[in-house]
C-alpha cells in the first residue's frame, strides 16, 4: 500500500518529518483539550495521565522499536490516547441522558430511583 502513495501524489505521508509533525500536532491538541477540561471542569488526572502515557508509548515505539513490534506498540499508544479522550468526554458530563450506558456518574433526582 505504501508503494502506491507516490503514484497518488501522497508520498509526503511516508516522510518521517510529516509523521513527527503530526505526532506533535496531536500532542498539542490533545494536551490543550484535556488540560483545559481538567482545570475548568472535572479536576481528575486520569485522562491527562492516559494521554501523556499514550504519547510516551507512541514516541518510544517510533524511536526504540522497529519492524512488526513497532506496528503493534504504536497503535496501542493511539488506543490509550483514544481512551483518555473518552474518559475526558465522560468526566466533562457531555452525556445527554443519565441512563446512558457509558455514563460514569448517576445523580439521584426526585422521582428517579437508582440502586
User: What is the end-to-end distance?
Assistant: 52 Å
Kindly state the number of beta strands: 0
Order of helices and strands: HHH
Binned, the helix content reads: 55-70%
Largest sheet entry: none
> Structural class of the helices, strands and pairings?
mainly alpha
Radius of gyration, in Å, reads 19 Å
Could you say which overall geometry the principal axes of the C-alpha atoms support?
A: elongated
Number of helices: 3
- Report low-confidence residues grouped into runs of 5 or more: none
The proportion of residues in beta strands is: under 5%
What features would you describe in this structure?
The structure is a single chain. This protein has helices spanning about 15-40, 45-65, 70-90. It is an all-alpha fold and about 120 residues long. The longest helix is centred in the first third of the chain and has 27 residues, at about 15-40. The chain is elongated, with a radius of gyration of 19 Å. The termini are far apart. The model has no long low-confidence stretch (mean pLDDT about 80). One of its GO terms (molecular function) is mercury ion transmembrane transporter activity.
